[in-house]
Amino acid sequence: MNKSDFRPRIKGNIKAAYDNITSSTTRVLAIGDLHEPFCLTEYLDHCKEVYAKHNCNRVVFIGDVIDNHHSSYHDTDPDGLGGGKELELAIKKLGRWHKAFPIADVTIGNHDRLIRRKAFSGGVPKQWIKEYAEVLNVKGWNFTDRVVIDNVQYIHGESGRASKKAKDDMMSTVQGHRHTEFFTEFIVGANFRIFGCAVGCGIDHTSYAMAYGKNFKKPAIGCAVVFGGEYAINEPINL
Fold it and tell me: How many CB atoms lie within 10 A of CB 60?
């Protein structure tokens, strides 16, 4: 492949910013909140297409790969799936993601943590709790609170907007959590340039598990790609 094969398919003045991208440049596909088993079926195909389009070589799931609606601290749907059935279906659907992206980092989201939070409040020692990858049958996925690649931090994003977090930490930041946010914003100073990137999500907002957000803005369905820690672009899905 030649150099142009690794350049984003974009137009305009920003295109010149990618002239230094080569085959050795780290190209990270950042995948938004899945909330399985309540993720749009089309979202996986979209992420696979973006991965191929930009010749990505790293994958980060930005968190909340499962929903755990049955264990929410908020009201749950009494007609919804029970804990066992929801987990069983989530594992089955995550299997499709694992097949497509067998090696990945996963930043742990607030929904992912629900069971551990309840175990902690119930006085259950952590020795009794299995690792996320074992429970979800996704060997090769590294679950962690924060990933740093090329001096860009990837977090779930519970502390506010991506641009604010980037400013607070003076470090380029990629995050999810806020389903309606989908942008890349650069912050430039006299001696620095960083960005905040909100990656969007893949949720099916019509599912009963998302009823809490029925009066919110429509979720932004998409993902993002980060090139060499220097630039990021958002890739919306066409629904």
Answer: 25
Ramachandran angles phi, psi of 115, nearest 5°: -65, -40
Among the listed residues 207, 198, 152, the one whose alpha carbon sits nearest the alpha carbon of residue 179: 198
Name the helix (H) or strand (E) containing 99. helix 83-100
- Give CA–CA dist 58/78, Å, rounded: 40
What is the residue whose two structure tokens read 């820690």? 229
DSSP secondary-structure letter at 139? Answer: T
Residue ranges, the chain, pLDDT below 70: 1-20
Question: Exposed, middle or buried: residue 86 (CB in 10 Å: 0-12, 13-18, 19+)?
Answer: buried
Preceding peptide of 37 cis, ω within 30°:
yes
- pTM comes to 0.90
Q: In what order do the strands lie in the sheet with 193-199?
A: 147-149, 152-155, 173-175, 193-199, 182-188
